[in-house]
User: What shape does this take?
Amino acid sequence: MSNLPKIAWIGLGIMGSPMAENLIKAGYAVTGYTLEQDKLERLAKNGGTAAASIAEAVQDADVILTMVPASPQVEAIAYGPDGILENARRGALLIDMSSITPQTSIDLAQAGGEKGIRVLDAPVSGGEAGAIEAVLSIMVGGQQDDFDAARPILEALGKTIVLCGPHGSGQTVKAANQLIVAVNIQACAEAVVFLEKSGVDLAAALDVLGGGLAGSTVLTRKKDNFKNRDFKPGFRIDLHHKDMGIVTDAARTVGAALPVGSVVANLVASLRAQGDGSLDHSALLRGVERLSGHSIEG
Assistant: This one.
């Protein structure tokens, strides 16, 4: 029998499913729960155990990991008689990997502490590809000893794993990450339309740009999306819209100006309002195309 801690995983979406599967590959026993039956079947097919409820998933777990879309979903799975805090055993470690407001993470840590449950906020960056390849960047908020206990698990999921400070710090760093990513994607999208309208070979241009100072992880990961107009969601516009709301609100609270970030937040919101919310955030290209009178495919 394995001496590894027993894992419960709540939320098996685009990111959660491959992450849970990577823990199974690393030898952990994973019991999962999510709302979609096909995702539970996928977990079971890949060696995990499907639970019929949150309570069933967490009751015997040493470590509980959650990956859901936003603060309301975190609160829904954490609180109440059927939630994590009422059904997990004392001493369990709850690692929330969702991208939510820093205050939601702070409140969750306090509520968990009252139940004898340790809590870390550990949002990630790297998208679906990073989740599949287990090379995510994981930014953590919480106490050092809890981080040390979580580290072997997090190392099965990511490559860059950093304790950023007390509870909520991981979410603050994630908000900054999403600001940088959105501005970067927007800049790349504008460059793509500029290049195409100028008659330059786009593939050649993106290759050479990627090798210079303009190169970035965003350009490397998203250049095929731009070239092929392939906006199958790895990270949806809807979710980036949520994240831009988090960073703009948090920046207002601390008195930090986001002049460029505010413009990009509005462009993300505009794209969502035009019906593109379910597309990958590389679909910011569609917004630039509309503004430029450039043909939009699909």
